[in-house]
């Protein structure tokens, strides 16, 4: 191993979960030509070994991120570090990278703690690239390419809307919800919580409280894939200055689902099943039916089904009822089996019974941007759309769109093509131009269409 470290450039990948599969394969395919040796560290040695695929230019190691000596030793031996850990665990890796002067790449949002290392990174001429996965990541890069192109022509931005969703591919769409878990189920259950959604529309700030979030949607049409809906992300304004859109009239970011999902999901919100703030007593022995009944009023004769229909105002012929039945929510024999569980955790368990991807299922990523701008006194619009279908349960669309940009950025940094130091996200041309170009080779292609700009005044007549 020491001999390998001396002659090859070592990339340390910390975390060998689902998102790392396409990333690792990318490096293995390029390892000989680029003189790379990949060290894959994970708490599970077995998982790390599986991801190496017995490749001669890869080594698996058991790595406990909380073992400071082990972590520091692994980072010291690397030429560059990729952290695919949960976001809150990046910071210790980042601090070690400052100490040992190693560049670092993550797919996660920039935390306040990570941003706090910006001065140290710049002082040591280090690149700490973050938000270089899918969302955040590809959304930043594809958006900035168009926005910079508009500005380079002298255009003025009026509107920017960005939508992204991890969905099930059409050929694997086999349930009434038109949805399966393609990523962390917990994130789906808790989506939209922790504050109201806020954005700006035609110069007016708008706010949607969580209780109304899933009933305020808009439609999106993607050629060849049909109609989708989108609900607002929690904070669309955080990238206002980052994107240079301080004077834009409309700024909105949202999550894509198939039409009808949000209305159905709102049933869980209204019942209180997505709440993660308290523990339910005796949850390990609770049946699915008892779980539902715990949110319903007492009645001496009405069944759980009747009470559910009444409180949610579901008619007998409403497909919303069929969607609930499909989840087997009223089964008195299925047991939750989770001790000291919150409603959100129990709901996640129930949904996982029905929404887990099967071995032959494929996932799908849909991204949709809208750019409104004024050029030479004429208002115009560009719509940019991207659809990516997964290959299988290892090389999923999610793994490709999260892992490949991380890998590409890492290699560009290693080869000296990305030079700007500091804690950053991929909004500079030296980052996004080569990565977007290379992503097209892997089927991540944006199709752009020009059209008249309507904004939110569809009755306006254009000459």
Automatic annotation (TrEMBL):
GO terms for cellular component: cytoplasm. Residues 11-128 form the Saccharopine dehydrogenase NADP binding domain. GO terms for molecular function: saccharopine dehydrogenase activity. GO terms for biological process: lysine biosynthetic process via aminoadipic acid. Pfam families: Sacchrp_dh_C (PF16653), Sacchrp_dh_NADP (PF03435). Gene3D superfamilies: Dihydrodipicolinate Reductase, domain 2, Domain 3, Saccharopine reductase, NAD(P)-binding Rossmann-like Domain. The keyword Heme does not apply. Residues 133-444 form the Saccharopine dehydrogenase-like C-terminal domain. It comes from the Bacteria. The keyword Nuclease does not apply. Keywords: Oxidoreductase. This is Saccharopine dehydrogenase, NADP-dependent. It comes from Flavobacterium granuli.
């Amino acid at each position: 191993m020491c001999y390998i470290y001396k002659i090859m450039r070592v990339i340390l990948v910390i975390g060998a979960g689902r998102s790392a599969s396409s990333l690792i394969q990318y490096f293995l395919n390029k390892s000989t030509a680029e003189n790379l040796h990949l060290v894959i560290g994970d708490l599970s040695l077995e998982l790390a070994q599986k991801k190496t695929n017995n490749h001669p230019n890869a080594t698996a190691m058991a790595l406990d991120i909380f073992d400071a000596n082990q972590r520091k030793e692994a980072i010291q031996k690397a030429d560059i570090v990729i952290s695919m850990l949960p976001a809150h665990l990046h910071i210790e890796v980042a601090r070690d990278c400052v100490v040992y002067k190693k560049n670092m790449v993550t797919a996660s949002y920039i935390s306040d703690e990570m941003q706090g290392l910006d001065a140290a990174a710049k002082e040591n001429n280090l690149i700490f690239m973050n938000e270089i996965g899918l969302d955040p990541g590809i959304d930043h890069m594809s958006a900035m390419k168009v926005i910079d192109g508009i500005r380079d022509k002298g255009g003025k931005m009026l509107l920017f809307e960005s939508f992204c969703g991890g969905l099930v591919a059409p050929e694997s769409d086999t349930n009434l919800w038109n949805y399966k878990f393609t990523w962390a189920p917990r994130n789906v259950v808790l989506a939209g919580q922790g504050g109201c959604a806020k954005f700006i529309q035609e110069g007016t700030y708008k706010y949607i409280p969580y209780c109304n979030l899933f009933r305020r949607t808009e439609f999106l049409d993607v050629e060849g894939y049909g109609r989708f809906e989108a609900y607002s992300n929690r904070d669309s304004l955080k990238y206002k200055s980052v994107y240079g859109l301080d004077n834009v009239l409309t700024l909105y970011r949202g999550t894509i689902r198939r039409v009808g999902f949000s209305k159905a999901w709102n049933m869980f919100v209204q019942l209180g099943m997505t709440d993660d703030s308290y523990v339910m007593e005796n949850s390990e022995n609770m049946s699915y039916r008892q779980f539902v009944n715990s949110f319903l009023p007492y009645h001496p004769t009405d069944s759980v089904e009747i009470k559910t229909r009444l409180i949610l105002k579901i008619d007998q012929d409403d497909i919303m009822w069929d969607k609930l039945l499909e989840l087997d929510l009223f089964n008195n024999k299925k047991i939750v089996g989770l001790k000291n569980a919150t409603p959100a955790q129990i709901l996640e368990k129930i949904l996982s019974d029905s929404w887990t991807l099967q071995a032959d299922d494929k996932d799908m990523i849909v991204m949709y941007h809208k750019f409104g701008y004024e050029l030479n006194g004429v208002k115009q619009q560009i719509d940019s759309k991207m659809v990516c279908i997964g290959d299988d349960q290892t090389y999923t669309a999610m793994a490709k769109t999260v892992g490949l940009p991380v890998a590409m950025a890492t290699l560009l940094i290693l080869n000296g093509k990305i030079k700007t130091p500091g804690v950053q996200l991929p909004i500079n041309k030296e980052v996004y131009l080569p990565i977007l170009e290379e992503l097209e080779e892997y089927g991540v292609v944006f199709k752009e269409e020009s059209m008249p700009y309507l904004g939110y005044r569809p009755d306006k007549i254009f000459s």
